[in-house]
């Protein structure tokens, strides 16, 4: 685990000394957008036109943020259009690597680099910052498009529709305000909340994260008791953003990150909803529990010094979801 400082790698754990033991996530720095005609998106520069075989996605199968991008690539029919490389789940002193020490790890298909940091350095040789997944690369210009998952999923949602003919919209105009409201609470207290609980280094910082996390899970349980999906009858971006955290919850966040007031399995509506989302075509193939458990338990030495990876739980996400009684789109 480390970061780049003026282009040099420094092996260093997250700094919580100046924040009362609280984990603060850095903002992603590469924020360009792929658009149908190459016009600039909401941030960054223009010049990233949607084209087949032009863009490459770097992911970890363990990472919930990268998982969002992989799911949108599958749902939107982009598997033949956007290629992928998969890093090792073992994130040690060199950060993300392509070391073949685990099933499912691929080469860096573009450059054959050993370390993901060297891909970032091809864009910005003097970069300062964290080397994170997902990372979206433009093969035509030889530079990074984006390393912000919330924006990558929006590009995938609508940028390539003319090429794929897929018009499914997970961020529909009439629901945008509601989706953004749900996203904001889910991001702060759930998606990032589990990390804030897990990486806290004081009791106060841990409780400041874990209490609101469970308040939000109770709120989500109420929402999903009344509705098939978070913003109504059909799945939207808000559901997929929650999905990648909850599918990991009982396996890693409950134990490793001490988010153990309840399990997702203890919430009937969240459990049924999670199964229904998992059972959508193409989604189960993006879920790799071996990468998930191994990454968290074996990489975070400060939290789990023995690096022993627990053998459970073994939930059955293929079991009947029972959500048919709620109206579907
Ligand atoms: N804001 C980013 C966050 C991505 C992120 O933090 N990914 C983690 C893996 S789950 C990572 O690569 N961490 C490495 C590090 O922080 O050094 C996004 O949503 O795309």
Automatic annotation (TrEMBL):
The record marks 253, 296 as: Lowers pKa of active site Cys. InterPro entries: Glutathione-S-Trfase_C-like (IPR010987), Glutathione-S-Trfase_C_sf (IPR036282), Glutathione_S-Trfase (IPR040079), Glutathione_S-Trfase_N (IPR004045), GST_Omega-like_C (IPR047047), GST_Omega/GSH (IPR016639), Thioredoxin-like_sf (IPR036249). It holds the Pfam family GST_N_2. The keyword Translocase does not apply. Glutathione binds at residues 96, 130-133, 148-149. One of its GO terms (molecular function) is glutathione transferase activity. One of its GO terms (cellular component) is cytoplasm. Keywords: Transferase. Residues 172-296 form the GST C-terminal domain. The active site is at 63 (nucleophile), 195 (proton donor/acceptor). The keyword Transferase applies. Gene3D superfamilies: 1.20.1050.10, Glutaredoxin. This is Putative glutathione S-transferase.
């Amino acid at each position: 685990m480390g970061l780049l400082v003026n282009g040099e790698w420094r092996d260093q754990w997250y700094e919580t000394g100046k924040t009362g033991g609280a984990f603060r996530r850095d903002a992603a720095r590469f924020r360009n957008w792929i658009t149908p005609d190459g016009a600039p998106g909401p941030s960054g520069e223009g010049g990233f036109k949607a084209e087949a075989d032009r863009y490459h996605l770097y992911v970890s199968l363990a990472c919930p943020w990268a998982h969002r991008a992989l799911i949108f690539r599958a749902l939107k029919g982009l598997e033949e259009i956007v290629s992928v490389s998969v890093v090792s789940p073992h994130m040690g002193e060199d950060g993300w690597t392509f070391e073949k020490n685990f099933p499912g790890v691929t080469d860096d298909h573009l450059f054959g680099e050993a370390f993901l940091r060297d891909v970032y350095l091809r864009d910005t040789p003097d970069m300062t910052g964290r080397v994170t997944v997902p990372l979206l690369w433009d093969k035509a210009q030889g530079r990074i498009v984006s390393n912000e998952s919330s924006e990558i999923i929006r590009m995938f949602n609508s940028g390539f529709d003319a090429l794929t003919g897929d018009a499914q919209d997970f961020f529909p105009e009439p629901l945008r305000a509601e989706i953004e409201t749900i996203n904001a609470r889910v991001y702060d207290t759930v998606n990032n909340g589990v990390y804030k609980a897990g990486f806290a280094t004081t009791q106060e910082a841990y409780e400041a994260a874990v209490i609101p996390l469970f308040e939000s899970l109770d709120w989500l349980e109420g929402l999903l008791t009344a509705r098939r999906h978070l913003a109504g009858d059909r799945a939207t971006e808000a559901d997929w953003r929650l999905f990648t955290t909850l599918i990991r919850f009982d396996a890693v966040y409950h134990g490793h990150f001490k988010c153990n007031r309840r399990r997702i399995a203890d919430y009937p509506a969240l459990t049924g909803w999670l199964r229904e989302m998992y059972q959508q075509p193409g989604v189960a193939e993006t879920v790799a529990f071996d990468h998930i458990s191994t990454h968290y338990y074996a990489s975070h030495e400060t939290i789990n010094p023995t690096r022993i990876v627990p053998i459970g739980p073994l939930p059955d996400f293929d079991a009947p979801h029972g959500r048919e009684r709620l109206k579907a789109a």
